[in-house]
Amino acid sequence: MTTIRIVFLGTSASVPQKNRFLSGLAMQIENGDVLLFDCGEGTQYQIMKYKVNFQKIVKIFLSHLHGDHIYGIFGLLSTMNLAERSNPLKIYGPPGTKMLLERFFGEKLENGFSYPIVILDTEEGFVCEDEGYQIVAKRTIHSVYTLSYAYIEKDRLGHFDIKKAKELNVKKGTKWQQLQKGKSVLSEENKVILPEMILGPKRRGFKIVIGSDGIYQEEDFVPFAMGADVLVLEATFSDINESKAKEKHHSTSRWSAIIARKAKAKKLYLTHISPRLDEEDNLEKQAQEEFPDAIIAYDGLEIHLNRKDLDKG
Ligand SMILES: [Zn+2]
Ligand SMILES: [Zn+2]
Q: Nearest ligand, CA of residue 11?
């Protein structure tokens, strides 16, 4: 059973390509909510094509205000309105996001849509939290203020040990349920039973890091991405264009792979692929020289994470 489904909606850099749309990534979490990271031109089509339920999008995280990452949001918000969406939508983005959308939509943004929209200009650090997870942002070095986002699940309580519950004489039923929620109960002998007496060690959740455009500074990006189950980073340039990457504030696939290795990521997906197609093969090879579990993402690529695999260690 899939716990988290990640879909790459667009993997091109700067301009659309025949087989690559512009930046966008959808993450469907366990409760069915969809978190959308960036919304490049064409995101609506890709959402339909790859069967993401767009009415389930509850939060949109914009990395920066370059066109290739945001031109799709105007159409998407309008379509949600035409489809008579009613559930609220939150949009997080770098400073200037709120003003940009307000200028575009004018008064309509306040109460002209069928659903409430909350826009929050965001800086690096804690962004938001919800049941079971939090989102944290980190800046990258790019030509404008740019944020990468980490989805970090909170630790979950350990497994319920039926044998121990019986040994300590805790009555089955409500008391077992309370213990499973982390609450203390009384045994049949009126002894206080703490949840840690019955539950196994806490279990970690998933960590997914969605890196955006820019150069990832090792000293602070490696700790930010540390231990990620899924790490998505950009790979606009290859080795031969290192100086161009520095000048344009983008990464090479090798630089991103070095970050993945140092951060002990489980898997690296490279995106933001330049239209210079002849470089594509080299990009993957150069990345794999540094980090074997690196692949070049493509539109429609899906990652399915299963909580059972995580519990296995
Ligand atoms: Zn870009
Ligand atoms: Zn950019």
A: 1
Where exactly does CATH 3.60.15.10 map onto the chain?
4-156+203-311
Q: Distance, CA 246 to ligand 1 centroid (Å)?
A: 15
- Structure token pair of residue 152: 């970090």
4-156+203-311 maps to which CATH number?
3.60.15.10
Query: With a threshold of 0.85, does the pTM exceed it?
Result: yes
Mean pLDDT by 10 residues, the chain (313 residues): 94 94 97 97 97 96 98 97 96 98 92 94 97 96 98 92 93 93 93 93 94 96 98 95 94 97 98 78 92 97 92 64
Q: Is 68 a catalytic residue?
A: yes
From the candidates 68, 213, 229, 299, give the one annotated as an active-site residue. Answer: 68
253, 276 Cβ separation under 8 angstroms = no
